[in-house]
């Protein structure tokens, strides 16, 4: 096994970059964001070709609500 010694600063920067790809078993945008929060991810990547996330299923007002919720929880949407 290789021992990798990284400073706390480097580890912190790596953690800031790690996100979650919402693909399976996700009800909606909010549940994916909640999963990210619960598991200390900093971002969520949504694949808009998955039926749950089809953009045409959401009104402008709903999309704004999703964006506000993610910003309020410091979750970046990718």
UniProtKB/TrEMBL annotation:
This is Xylose isomerase-like TIM barrel domain-containing protein. It comes from marine sediment metagenome.
